[in-house]
Amino acid sequence: MDQTLQAVLAATASFFVVSLILASILVICKGDAKRRRNNRSVSPVRARNSALPKPNTAPHAGLSSMYTGESATFDPSLNHVSMQELVQVTRNFSPDLIIGDGSFGLVYKARLNSGPVVAVKKLSPDAFQGLREFRAEMETLGKIRHPNIVKILGYCATGSDRVLIYEFIEKGSLDQWLYDTSSEEDYDALELRLPLSWHTRMKIIRGVAKGLAFMHNLDTPIIHRDIKASNILLDANFEAHIADFGLARRIEGSHSHVSTQVAGTMGYMPPEYLHGATMATVVGDVYSFGVLMLEIVAGRRPSFPFSGEDGKEVRLMEWINKMVQERRYMEMVDASISKDDLEESMVVEIFKIGLKCADEMWKLRPSMEEVVEHLDRILA
C-alpha cells in the first residue's frame, strides 16, 4: 500500500479514537455534576436570587429614600408637611399640575391635606451641593417677610431630592399679563386678561423696587441675580411679589459675591456679567430692574428682536436709547395702554429712572433705596 495513503488512514483513525475518549470523559463529568446538583436542597442560582432585593414597585419610586429625611416649616399657620404628602398632593409631580419653570426646577400647584393651596418647587439634583448648604439657605430665605417677596413656607429633603413650598400667588406671572402666553398655559379656567393699565404697571414697578430695596438692605444683603418678568408674580390686587430665589446668594460682609458661573437671563443681564466679570453685585440687580421697568412701560421683551422703522432688527434697549435721543417718549409707551390723562412729564421721568438703573456703567446706577424714593415722589 502506498505510504502516503497509510499515513492518512493512520491519522484519521487516531483522530476518531481521541474524539471518542474526550466525549466519554465529558459525559461522565456531566453526570457527576447533575448528581451533585440533585443532592443539594437549594441551587446556587436560587440562593443568589433569594438574596437580591425585590424591585421597587412603589408608585413614587422616583424620589430617593422617600420615607426618610427631614422637613421644616417657616409659617406658624402651616402644619408639618412630609415628602410623602407632597408626592400625594402633586400626584407624583404630575405634568398636569405644572404652573411654572423656574431656575433649577419645575413649580407645581397643589392643595395640602390641611387645606391651603401652595406652589411646590421640585429642585434639580444639582441645585445645591449638599444638605447643609441647602438647609442654611432655606433657613435664611424662610425668615424673609415682605409684602413684595414670595414667602417660602417650608421644605422637604430626602436623599438627593429637595422640594420647596411657596405661598401660591393667584394671578400668575407678570410675563403672562404683558404678553399673550395663553397657548403656553394649561389652567382649568383661563381668565380673560385685559391689558394692564398705566396705574397698574406703576404699582407693579414700585412693588418690585421695594422688594429689591428690602433684600439689598438686610444686615446680610441678598442678591437675586435673575430679576425678570416671569419671576414677578401678581396677586389678586395686582401687587407684585418677587419670586424664584434659585439664583439668590447671601452676601457676607460686602455687597458682592464671587462666582464662577454667569447667572441670569439674556436681555436682563448686566453688561459686566457678559464681559467676564465674576462678581455678582446689588448693582447687577439694579440693572435688571431697569430693563424690567422699561419692558413694563414699552410692552416689549428685552431678549426678543423686533423690526425697527428702517426694517432692520433691533432690541429693546437699543431701540429705547435711539427713541430717547429723538425725545419720542410717548411713542414708546405700550400701544395697549390708554393715553387719556397720561401726562408726558411723568412718562419722561419713568423712562429716565429706568435708563439710569440700566446704565452701562455700574458705578452710575442708583441704589434701589434711591429708586424707591424717586418713584414715591413722582407717583404720589
Automatic annotation (TrEMBL):
Which cellular component appears as one GO term in the record? membrane
The record's catalysed reaction(s) read: L-seryl-[protein] + ATP = O-phospho-L-seryl-[protein] + ADP + H(+); L-threonyl-[protein] + ATP = O-phospho-L-threonyl-[protein] + ADP + H(+)
Q: Which domain of life is it from?
A: Eukaryota
Q: Name a Pfam family for this protein.
A: Pkinase
The residues covered by the Protein kinase domain are 93-379
What subcellular compartments does it reside in?
Membrane
In terms of InterPro entries, this protein maps to: Kinase-like_dom_sf, LRR_Rcpt-Like_S/T_Kinase, Prot_kinase_dom, Protein_kinase_ATP_BS, Ser/Thr_kinase_AS
Please name the GO terms that the record assigns under molecular function: ATP binding; protein serine/threonine kinase activity
**Which Enzyme Commission number(s) are listed?**
2.7.11.1
Q: Which SUPFAM superfamilies does the entry mention?
A: Protein kinase-like (PK-like)
- Key words, A-Z: ATP-binding, Glycoprotein, Kinase, Membrane, Nucleotide-binding, Receptor, Serine/threonine-protein kinase, Signal, Transferase, Transmembrane, Transmembrane helix
Q: Where are the transmembrane segments?
A: 6-29
Membrane topology summary: Single-pass type I membrane protein
Locate the region Disordered. Answer: 38-65
Q: Which residues bind ATP?
A: K122
Protein name, entry field: non-specific serine/threonine protein kinase
What organism is recorded for this protein? Sesamum indicum (Oriental sesame)
